[in-house]
Amino acid sequence: MPITELQSLSQFEEAIKSTELTVIKFSTPDCIPCKMIAPVYDKYSKYYKGAKYYNCDCEEQVEVAALIPVTNVPTFALYKEGELVLLVSGEGADVTKLKSGIRKYATKEPAKKKTSADVKKTVKGRRRKTVKK
Fold it and tell me: What is the C-alpha separation between 2 and 85, in angstroms, rounded?
């Protein structure tokens, strides 16, 4: 799933009502730990398809950040059907706790990783198409 930027309080309110898990990363533009954890968050958003992912800039969306309330960044808030089900907060945001929460509350199975057999089938199929005239 792509990560969406939260642009307003109404967008936030609509997002958290979802029956799917909603994961929101609260951060600020110059937060070093936020930048360091960004690739992990991006990876989770691609792997765990049973959730919707959002970024919230606390400096731009002060009203939204005040609802949690966010005291440290990065902070990850996991919502399911309007309820806050998990909050992972602070400079040392525990990625294991975040991953466990996503796995626990996501509605679908994680995206299937390609195995070496899948890759071989794809490569073999391409060869056949190339060889046939």
Answer: 22
